[in-house]
Protein backbone atom coordinates (compact mmCIF):
# COMPACT_ATOMS: atom_id res chain seq x y z
CA UNK A 1 0.00 0.00 0.00
CA UNK A 2 1.38 3.34 -1.00
CA UNK A 3 1.82 6.25 1.35
CA UNK A 4 0.46 8.57 -1.30
CA UNK A 5 -2.90 9.44 0.17
CA UNK A 6 -5.75 10.03 -2.25
CA UNK A 7 -7.68 13.25 -2.12
CA UNK A 8 -11.17 11.86 -1.73
CA UNK A 9 -13.68 13.16 -4.20
CA UNK A 10 -11.22 14.52 -6.73
CA UNK A 11 -12.18 14.41 -10.36
CA UNK A 12 -9.84 11.61 -11.38
CA UNK A 13 -11.31 9.32 -8.72
CA UNK A 14 -14.98 10.18 -9.24
CA UNK A 15 -15.69 6.97 -11.22
CA UNK A 16 -14.70 5.02 -8.08
CA UNK A 17 -16.56 7.18 -5.57
CA UNK A 18 -19.48 5.62 -3.72
CA UNK A 19 -22.03 8.00 -2.22
CA UNK A 20 -24.97 5.64 -1.69
CA UNK A 21 -25.48 5.40 2.06
CA UNK A 22 -26.86 1.89 1.79
CA UNK A 23 -23.80 0.76 -0.17
CA UNK A 24 -21.41 2.48 2.25
CA UNK A 25 -23.09 0.76 5.20
CA UNK A 26 -22.84 -2.58 3.40
CA UNK A 27 -19.09 -2.08 2.89
CA UNK A 28 -18.55 -1.16 6.53
CA UNK A 29 -20.57 -4.18 7.66
CA UNK A 30 -18.42 -6.31 5.35
CA UNK A 31 -15.32 -5.16 7.22
CA UNK A 32 -17.03 -5.89 10.54
CA UNK A 33 -18.47 -9.28 9.65
CA UNK A 34 -15.27 -10.57 8.03
CA UNK A 35 -13.01 -9.07 10.72
CA UNK A 36 -10.91 -7.42 8.04
CA UNK A 37 -8.13 -5.17 9.32
CA UNK A 38 -7.94 -1.54 8.18
CA UNK A 39 -4.98 0.84 8.11
CA UNK A 40 -5.66 4.12 9.94
CA UNK A 41 -3.30 6.95 9.01
CA UNK A 42 -2.76 10.46 10.34
CA UNK A 43 -0.32 13.29 9.61
CA UNK A 44 -0.35 12.61 5.86
CA UNK A 45 0.50 8.96 6.37
CA UNK A 46 3.58 9.50 8.54
CA UNK A 47 1.87 7.65 11.39
CA UNK A 48 -0.24 4.53 10.86
CA UNK A 49 -2.12 2.05 13.02
CA UNK A 50 -4.08 -1.13 12.41
CA UNK A 51 -7.75 -1.04 13.39
CA UNK A 52 -11.02 -2.82 12.65
CA UNK A 53 -14.73 -2.01 12.51
CA UNK A 54 -16.39 -3.09 15.77
CA UNK A 55 -19.92 -1.82 15.29
CA UNK A 56 -22.13 0.33 13.06
CA UNK A 57 -25.07 2.28 14.47
CA UNK A 58 -27.21 3.28 11.51
CA UNK A 59 -29.76 5.12 13.66
CA UNK A 60 -27.14 7.34 15.28
CA UNK A 61 -24.97 7.56 12.14
CA UNK A 62 -21.84 6.30 13.89
CA UNK A 63 -19.08 3.77 13.29
CA UNK A 64 -17.08 2.35 16.20
CA UNK A 65 -13.55 1.15 15.51
CA UNK A 66 -10.74 -0.33 17.58
CA UNK A 67 -8.61 2.21 19.40
CA UNK A 68 -4.87 2.45 18.98
CA UNK A 69 -2.56 1.05 21.66
CA UNK A 70 -1.70 3.75 24.17
CA UNK A 71 -3.41 6.89 25.38
CA UNK A 72 -1.05 9.27 23.56
CA UNK A 73 -1.62 7.62 20.19
CA UNK A 74 -5.38 7.85 20.58
CA UNK A 75 -5.08 11.50 21.58
CA UNK A 76 -3.15 12.24 18.39
CA UNK A 77 -5.85 10.50 16.37
CA UNK A 78 -8.75 12.47 17.89
CA UNK A 79 -6.80 15.71 17.50
CA UNK A 80 -5.85 14.99 13.87
CA UNK A 81 -7.38 17.34 11.31
CA UNK A 82 -7.99 14.36 9.03
CA UNK A 83 -7.82 10.60 9.47
CA UNK A 84 -7.44 8.37 6.41
CA UNK A 85 -8.53 4.72 6.21
CA UNK A 86 -7.52 2.07 3.69
CA UNK A 87 -8.66 -1.54 3.83
CA UNK A 88 -8.95 -4.52 1.53
CA UNK A 89 -12.38 -6.14 1.21
CA UNK A 90 -12.87 -8.97 -1.27
CA UNK A 91 -9.68 -7.89 -3.10
CA UNK A 92 -11.02 -4.36 -3.53
CA UNK A 93 -9.31 -1.39 -1.87
CA UNK A 94 -11.81 0.65 0.16
CA UNK A 95 -10.66 4.14 1.19
CA UNK A 96 -12.36 6.87 3.19
CA UNK A 97 -11.53 9.68 5.58
CA UNK A 98 -12.93 11.43 8.65
CA UNK A 99 -12.11 14.48 10.72
CA UNK A 100 -14.38 13.88 13.70
CA UNK A 101 -13.08 10.92 15.67
CA UNK A 102 -13.96 10.73 19.34
CA UNK A 103 -13.08 8.43 22.20
CA UNK A 104 -15.76 6.01 23.34
CA UNK A 105 -16.27 2.61 24.96
CA UNK A 106 -17.37 -0.61 23.29
CA UNK A 107 -18.17 -3.73 25.29
CA UNK A 108 -16.23 -2.39 28.25
CA UNK A 109 -13.02 -1.43 26.45
CA UNK A 110 -11.66 1.74 24.84
CA UNK A 111 -12.68 2.43 21.26
CA UNK A 112 -13.00 5.27 18.77
CA UNK A 113 -16.15 6.63 17.20
CA UNK A 114 -16.79 8.59 14.03
CA UNK A 115 -19.69 9.49 11.73
CA UNK A 116 -20.59 7.12 8.90
CA UNK A 117 -18.60 8.39 5.87
CA UNK A 118 -20.66 10.27 3.31
CA UNK A 119 -18.50 8.86 0.52
CA UNK A 120 -15.86 6.18 0.03
CA UNK A 121 -13.47 5.33 -2.78
CA UNK A 122 -13.66 1.78 -4.11
CA UNK A 123 -10.66 0.82 -6.26
CA UNK A 124 -10.52 -2.51 -8.01
CA UNK A 125 -7.42 -3.02 -10.09
CA UNK A 126 -8.55 -6.02 -12.08
CA UNK A 127 -5.25 -6.52 -13.87
CA UNK A 128 -3.23 -6.95 -10.67
CA UNK A 129 -5.65 -7.44 -7.80
CA UNK A 130 -4.17 -8.30 -4.44
CA UNK A 131 -5.30 -11.18 -2.30
CA UNK A 132 -4.34 -11.71 1.33
CA UNK A 133 -2.19 -14.73 2.09
CA UNK A 134 -3.23 -17.11 4.91
CA UNK A 135 -2.55 -15.81 8.41
CA UNK A 136 -2.75 -19.27 10.00
CA UNK A 137 0.11 -20.63 7.87
CA UNK A 138 2.25 -17.63 6.88
CA UNK A 139 4.17 -17.89 3.62
CA UNK A 140 7.80 -16.83 3.83
CA UNK A 141 9.80 -14.84 1.32
CA UNK A 142 13.57 -15.35 1.48
CA UNK A 143 15.58 -12.22 0.67
CA UNK A 144 19.41 -12.02 0.71
CA UNK A 145 20.34 -9.14 3.02
CA UNK A 146 23.81 -7.54 3.06
CA UNK A 147 25.48 -7.79 6.48
CA UNK A 148 28.96 -7.14 7.84
CA UNK A 149 29.83 -10.79 7.27
CA UNK A 150 28.33 -10.91 3.78
CA UNK A 151 24.89 -11.65 2.39
CA UNK A 152 22.59 -13.71 4.56
CA UNK A 153 19.17 -15.10 3.67
CA UNK A 154 16.43 -13.65 5.83
CA UNK A 155 12.78 -14.73 5.94
CA UNK A 156 9.85 -12.31 5.82
CA UNK A 157 6.13 -13.06 6.09
CA UNK A 158 3.91 -12.31 3.11
CA UNK A 159 0.85 -10.12 3.67
CA UNK A 160 -0.64 -10.27 0.18
CA UNK A 161 0.27 -11.19 -3.36
CA UNK A 162 -0.71 -10.16 -6.87
CA UNK A 163 0.64 -10.87 -10.34
CA UNK A 164 2.55 -7.59 -10.01
CA UNK A 165 4.22 -8.04 -6.64
CA UNK A 166 3.92 -8.77 -2.94
CA UNK A 167 3.66 -7.02 0.42
CA UNK A 168 5.82 -8.30 3.27
CA UNK A 169 6.36 -7.53 6.95
CA UNK A 170 9.82 -6.48 8.12
CA UNK A 171 9.66 -6.63 11.93
CA UNK A 172 13.42 -6.13 12.38
CA UNK A 173 13.94 -3.28 9.87
CA UNK A 174 16.43 -5.33 7.87
CA UNK A 175 15.44 -4.17 4.39
CA UNK A 176 16.70 -1.03 2.68
CA UNK A 177 13.38 0.68 1.92
CA UNK A 178 14.81 3.20 -0.55
CA UNK A 179 12.31 3.24 -3.42
CA UNK A 180 13.77 1.49 -6.44
CA UNK A 181 16.16 -0.74 -4.49
CA UNK A 182 16.31 -4.19 -6.08
CA UNK A 183 16.87 -7.50 -4.34
CA UNK A 184 17.97 -10.37 -6.57
CA UNK A 185 17.87 -14.11 -5.88
CA UNK A 186 14.75 -13.93 -3.71
CA UNK A 187 12.59 -17.00 -3.22
CA UNK A 188 9.03 -17.77 -2.18
CA UNK A 189 7.96 -21.30 -1.25
CA UNK A 190 4.36 -21.50 -2.46
CA UNK A 191 2.31 -24.40 -1.02
CA UNK A 192 1.53 -27.17 -3.55
CA UNK A 193 3.47 -25.26 -6.22
CA UNK A 194 7.02 -25.12 -4.93
CA UNK A 195 9.93 -22.73 -4.76
CA UNK A 196 9.95 -19.80 -7.18
CA UNK A 197 12.92 -17.51 -7.83
CA UNK A 198 12.44 -13.80 -8.42
CA UNK A 199 13.86 -10.29 -8.20
CA UNK A 200 12.02 -7.74 -6.06
CA UNK A 201 12.03 -3.95 -6.29
CA UNK A 202 11.04 -1.78 -3.33
CA UNK A 203 8.03 0.40 -4.19
CA UNK A 204 6.70 1.67 -0.85
CA UNK A 205 6.86 1.14 2.89
CA UNK A 206 4.79 1.98 5.91
CA UNK A 207 5.32 1.83 9.65
CA UNK A 208 2.42 0.07 11.38
CA UNK A 209 1.43 -0.32 15.02
CA UNK A 210 -0.41 -3.57 15.60
CA UNK A 211 -3.26 -4.05 18.06
CA UNK A 212 -0.89 -5.71 20.55
CA UNK A 213 1.22 -2.53 20.60
CA UNK A 214 4.11 -3.99 18.59
CA UNK A 215 5.40 -2.09 15.59
CA UNK A 216 6.24 -3.53 12.21
CA UNK A 217 7.03 -2.30 8.73
CA UNK A 218 4.92 -3.23 5.73
CA UNK A 219 6.87 -3.11 2.46
CA UNK A 220 5.40 -3.21 -1.02
CA UNK A 221 7.60 -4.93 -3.59
CA UNK A 222 7.18 -5.26 -7.36
CA UNK A 223 8.27 -8.27 -9.36
CA UNK A 224 11.08 -7.46 -11.81
CA UNK A 225 11.28 -9.23 -15.18
CA UNK A 226 9.15 -12.12 -13.99
CA UNK A 227 9.44 -15.11 -16.31
CA UNK A 228 6.26 -16.41 -17.91
CA UNK A 229 6.73 -19.70 -16.05
CA UNK A 230 6.99 -17.96 -12.69
CA UNK A 231 4.03 -15.69 -13.51
CA UNK A 232 1.96 -18.78 -14.29
CA UNK A 233 2.89 -20.23 -10.88
CA UNK A 234 1.86 -17.00 -9.13
CA UNK A 235 -1.43 -16.93 -11.04
CA UNK A 236 -2.14 -20.55 -10.08
CA UNK A 237 -1.57 -19.73 -6.41
CA UNK A 238 -3.80 -16.64 -6.53
CA UNK A 239 -6.56 -18.69 -8.15
CA UNK A 240 -6.16 -21.33 -5.43
CA UNK A 241 -6.49 -18.70 -2.68
CA UNK A 242 -9.52 -17.28 -4.47
CA UNK A 243 -11.23 -20.68 -4.61
CA UNK A 244 -10.52 -21.31 -0.92
CA UNK A 245 -11.84 -17.88 0.04
CA UNK A 246 -15.02 -18.35 -1.98
CA UNK A 247 -15.53 -21.80 -0.48
CA UNK A 248 -15.33 -20.37 3.06
CA UNK A 249 -17.77 -17.60 2.19
CA UNK A 250 -20.32 -20.05 0.82
CA UNK A 251 -19.74 -22.55 3.63
CA UNK A 252 -18.67 -25.34 1.29
Automatic annotation (TrEMBL):
Residues in PilZ domain copies: 124-239
UniProt-listed Pfam families: PilZ, PilZN
InterPro entries, per database record: PilZ_domain, Split_barrel_FMN-bd, T3SS_YcgR, T3SS_YcgR_PilZN
Superkingdom of origin organism: Bacteria
UniProtKB keywords: Bacterial flagellum, c-di-GMP, Cell projection, Cilium, Flagellum, Nucleotide-binding
Domain Type III secretion system flagellar brake protein YcgR PilZN span(s) in chain numbering: 16-122
Keyword Manganese included in the entry's annotation: no
Subcellular location: Bacterial flagellum basal body
Functional note: Acts as a flagellar brake, regulating swimming and swarming in a bis-(3'-5') cyclic diguanylic acid (c-di-GMP)-dependent manner. Binds 1 c-di-GMP dimer per subunit. Increasing levels of c-di-GMP lead to decreased motility.
Sequence similarity: Belongs to the YcgR family.
Subunit structure: Monomer. Interacts with the flagellar basal bodies.
Protein name: Flagellar brake protein YcgR
Organism: Undibacterium macrobrachii
Gene name in the database record: ycgR
Amino acid sequence: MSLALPSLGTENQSPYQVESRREILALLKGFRDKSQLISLMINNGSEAFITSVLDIDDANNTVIIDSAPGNEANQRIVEASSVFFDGLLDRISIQFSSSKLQRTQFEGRPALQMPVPTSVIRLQRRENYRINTPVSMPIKCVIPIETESGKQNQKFSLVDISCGGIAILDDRNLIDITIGTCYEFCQIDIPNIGLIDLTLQIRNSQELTLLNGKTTRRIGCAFVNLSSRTLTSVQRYIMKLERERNAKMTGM
